[in-house]
Amino acid sequence: MVLSAAPVIGVLLVAVSFPCTRGLPLVVRSRSEPIARLYEILRRVSQENIEAFKRSFEAGNRHDFDAMLEELDPAVEWHPAVGVGLAGEATVLRGREEVRKWFQDLFEAFDDLRFEASEFRDLGDELLAFGRVHAHGTASGVEIDSPLAWLVRAKNGKAIWVRSYLDPREALEAAGLSE
């Protein structure tokens, strides 16, 4: 965040450039106005990030990967926990096409795979979502019903970094929060 202030004819002018304001300065003309305007912009942008994540989530569950990927930055970095839980190894997906392939493979491996998010926490340019993953293995029949949490960083209304966690407490810790 960049903050600058200058008194002009008895009025304090404040310019704030915050990452989630998409690089546009916030200019206010009084001493009491800055915090209220900044809060409103941050709230609106944060809500936009949450809505974009929800759209991506819903599209993925419909297997509409084009719509899902539209909510991600082209250079997104995705760290899925499901791969760690199933294969025992960490996976890092870079870019929309790697994310697409990973989700297509995942939906082929599991019948009725469904991600659910029930709680969202607005963290400014980050959001934290809590939910569950449900599935049955296509070949094995193994049933999965597990908590899942996502920490998402957004820029210009697109997710640029996503990490999912099988333990929601780990997601809270990663976000610098506690229960």
| Structural class based on helices, strands and sheet pairing | alpha+beta
Provide the succession of SSEs. Answer: EEEHHEHEHEEEEH
Estimate nothing, just give the exact number of structural domains. Answer: 2
What's the pLDDT, averaged over the residues?
78
The percent of residues in helical segments reads: 25-40%
Global shape: globular
Largest sheet: 6 strands, mixed
Number of strands: 9
Sequence stretches where pLDDT stays below 50 over 5 or more residues? 1-30
Please, what is the oligomeric state?
A: single chain
The CATH architecture of the largest domain would be: Roll
| CATH topology label of the largest domain | Nuclear Transport Factor 2, Chain: A
Structure description:
The structure is a single chain. With about 180 residues, this protein is an alpha+beta fold. The protein has two domains: about 1-40, no CATH class; about 45-175, Roll (Nuclear Transport Factor 2, Chain: A). The chain has five helices and nine strands. The strands form two sheets. Strands 5-4-9-8-7-6 form a six-stranded mixed beta sheet, with helices on both faces. A three-stranded antiparallel beta sheet has the order 1-2-3, covered by helices on one side. A hairpin with a 2-residue loop joins strand 8 and strand 9. The chain is globular, with a radius of gyration of 19 Å. The protein starts with a strand and ends in a 5-residue tail after the last helix.
